[in-house]
């Protein structure tokens, strides 16, 4: 299979010039091993059934013997041989190798190591593929370029994606394996297969403690029904406990494991001092790493959304969050959200490490765009007003945009309205 370039490639190559070893972490099936293999001349695959026993014995008795092979070396499923970590940490410290080792493995295996690897082993998180990486977004509008040039003329640029295309992309997900499958119905089975493996095997494998599959399913279904919302954990507990007799602590422990598996995530709130701190809602936004797992949890296919555009809007937001996280990974971006007690909200706030940030509304289209424009303008006005009153100044947003499911890009009141099918890193 031909390697499909990933946005994270740039980050990996930069880190490889500063660290001896790179560990790639992320959800099962997102392409970690394939990405590392592209950079390696030797692969030590601990899951290879023909070589596994011998490789594990070598790792336990004399792991340094692996260093005789041509570098860079990929240690795939290294968690099966945790001595590899300390060996590489020491080797990189003594001989100052750069970009010589790659470590990949399943997120369902937690391993305790005696040293963190700080300064020797860099850890980089990978995500499922964005629409630009799957060649569905035409990439006419660069997120990086928008930050560098907020006055960039985008007017009239056009997405090739229809709403039906987006419904399919949401259900299929950003899993590289799906790109090897040419039948669309078969592509949709990839996310379902991952979902089944998560609840049947991975959630128990991560710490070696047997988990109740039914409880894992119920939690993921609750998250999926509340995707993109600020529901408190109490709501998740009540949803689960309506049919199952489990304590909040037990439910919490399952949620923690699902986060460790890179299945669900909670997006933190942004709380600038533009209103009273008491008026800010600190609740976290419930999200999936990839929207297809939410669809799999609820048993949804693309046709379902023909009659439920409300849920489509929430799951579309999850897809946009995924893509923004992918695109901003090369410029050190981090996503949050804003919501206050007066119901003024901004779906996403993208902060860069250099201090710049963007306010982002995510809409399917229609009236939602006008509402989004009002919200963005109102938050900017509040910041400007707060700066008149406060000694501590709040940075005015460097960029304001609405990302939507429509066809044409345009600018209104200095706000960029951008089809998701036009965006790239």
Describe the structure.
The protein has 425 residues and is of the alpha/beta class. Helices cover 38% and strands 16% of the residues. It contains 13 helices and 15 strands. It has helices at residues 8-15, 32-37, 52-61, 83-95, 143-148, 163-172, 184-205, 213-225, 233-241, 248-260, 291-298, 309-328, 367-389, and strands spanning 21-25, 42-45, 73-76, 101-104, 121-125, 141-142, 264-267, 285-288, 333-339, 345-352, 357-363, 399-404, 410-412, 415-419, 423-424. The strands form 4 sheets. Strands 9-10-11-12-14-13 form a 6-stranded mixed beta sheet, with helices on both faces. Strands 2-3-4-1-5 form a 5-stranded parallel beta sheet, sandwiched between helices. A hairpin with a 5-residue loop joins strand 9 and strand 10 (345-352). Helix 8 crosses helix 11. The longest helix is centred in the last third of the chain and has 23 residues, at 367-389. The protein is globular. The mean pLDDT is 93.
Distance between the termini: 24 Å
| Helical run tally | 13
Radius of gyration: 23 Å
Largest sheet: 6 strands, mixed
What is the secondary structure topology, with strand pairs?
Blueprint: H1 8-15, E1 21-25, H2 32-37, E2 42-45, H3 52-61, E3 73-76, H4 83-95, E4 101-104, E5 121-125, E6 141-142, H5 143-148, H6 163-172, H7 184-205, H8 213-225, H9 233-241, H10 248-260, E7 264-267, E8 285-288, H11 291-298, H12 309-328, E9 333-339, E10 345-352, E11 357-363, H13 367-389, E12 399-404, E13 410-412, E14 415-419, E15 423-424
Parallel strand pairs: 1-4, 1-5, 2-3, 3-4, 6-15, 11-12, 12-14
Antiparallel strand pairs: 7-8, 9-10, 10-11, 13-14
Helix pairs in contact: 6-11, 7-8, 7-11, 8-11
């Amino acid at each position: 299979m031909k390697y499909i370039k990933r946005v994270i490639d740039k980050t990996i190559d930069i880190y490889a010039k500063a660290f001896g070893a790179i560990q790639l972490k992320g959800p099962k099936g997102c392409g970690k091993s394939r990405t590392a293999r592209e950079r390696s001349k030797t692969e030590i695959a601990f899951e290879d059934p023909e070589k596994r026993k011998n490789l594990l014995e070598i790792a336990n008795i004399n792991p340094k013997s692996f260093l005789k092979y041509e570098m860079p070396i990929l240690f795939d499923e290294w968690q099966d041989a945790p001595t590899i970590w300390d060996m590489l940490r020491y080797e990189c410290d003594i001989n100052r190798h750069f970009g010589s080792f790659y470590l990949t493995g399943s997120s369902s295996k937690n391993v305790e190591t005696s040293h963190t690897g700080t300064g020797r082993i860099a850890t980089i998180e990978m995500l499922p593929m964005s629409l630009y990486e799957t060649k569905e977004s035409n990439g006419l509008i660069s997120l990086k370029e928008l930050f560098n040039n907020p006055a960039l003329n985008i007017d009239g640029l056009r997405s090739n994606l229809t709403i039906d295309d987006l419904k399919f992309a949401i259900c299929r997900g950003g899993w590289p394996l799906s790109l090897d499958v040419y039948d669309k119905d078969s592509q949709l089975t990839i996310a379902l297969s991952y979902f089944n493996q998560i609840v049947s095997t991975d959630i128990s494998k991560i710490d070696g403690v047997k988990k109740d599959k039914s409880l894992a399913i119920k939690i993921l279904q609750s998250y999926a029904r509340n995707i993109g919302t600020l529901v408190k954990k109490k709501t998740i507990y009540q949803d689960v406990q309506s049919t199952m007799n489990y304590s909040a602590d037990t439910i919490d422990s399952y949620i923690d494991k699902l986060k460790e598996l890179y299945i669900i995530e909670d997006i933190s709130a942004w709380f600038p001092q533009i209103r009273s701190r008491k008026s800010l809602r600190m609740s976290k936004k419930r999200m999936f790493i990839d929207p297809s797992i939410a669809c799999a949890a609820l048993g949804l296919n693309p046709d379902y959304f023909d009659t439920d555009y409300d849920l489509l809007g929430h799951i579309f937001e999850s897809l946009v969050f995924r893509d923004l996280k992918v695109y901003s990974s090369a410029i050190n971006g981090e996503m949050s959200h804003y919501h206050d007690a007066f119901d003024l909200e901004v779906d996403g706030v993208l902060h860069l490490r250099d201090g710049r940030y963007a306010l982002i509304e995510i809409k399917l289209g229609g009236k939602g765009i006008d509402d989004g424009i009002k919200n963005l303008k109102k938050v900017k006005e509040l910041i400007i007003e707060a700066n008149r009153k406060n000694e501590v100044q709040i940075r005015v947003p460097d960029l304001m945009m609405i990302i939507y499911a429509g066809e044409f890009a345009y600018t209104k009141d200095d706000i960029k309205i951008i089809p998701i099918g036009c965006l790239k890193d």
